[in-house]
Specification:
alpha+beta; 4-stranded mixed β-sheet; 135 residues; Endonuclease, Chain A; globular
Length: 135
């Protein structure tokens, strides 16, 4: 049986969602449902041949949660960011320990990188941010 185009990438994205590290899970709980500046984020989105951890299509913003393995893959990460930039996306990268230890600060940087909520499609407005430790 033939697989449809992109099947392997979709399967990989599903696998990544299921095997996400704690930092990615925590960040996703904070980003989902338009909780940050009213922006709609997608998780493990296929973009330009790569899978972005989180992406806001309307704001053309990619958010990457990087674990220790990314210290050894700086060239690969730079290439990914360049490919995203070629599509007009800006990439923000955060170390997993920053997400776990300073989620409020990470969310503030993400919020500051987004256009004002009035420039994003409305879906009832942003939800309140979860408090540290909730979630």
């Amino acid at each position: 049986m033939r697989r449809p185009p992109g099947y392997d990438m979709l399967k990989r994205a599903r696998d990544l969602r299921m095997l996400s590290p704690d930092a990615e899970k925590r960040l996703w709980r904070a980003l989902r449902n338009r909780r940050v500046a009213g922006a709609k984020f997608r998780r493990q989105m296929w973009l330009s041949g790569y899978i972005a951890d989180f992406a806001c299509i309307e704001a053309k913003l990619v958010v990457e949660a990087d674990g220790g393995q990314h210290g050894d893959n700086a060239d690969y990460d730079a290439l990914r960011s360049e490919r995203f930039a070629a599509l007009g996306y800006r990439t923000l990268r955060f170390w997993n320990n920053d997400i776990l230890e300073n989620l409020d600060g990470v969310l503030q940087v993400i919020s500051d990188a987004l256009p004002s909520p009035s420039h994003l499609p409305s879906a009832g407005g942003p939800l309140p941010l979860p408090k540290m430790g909730e979630g």
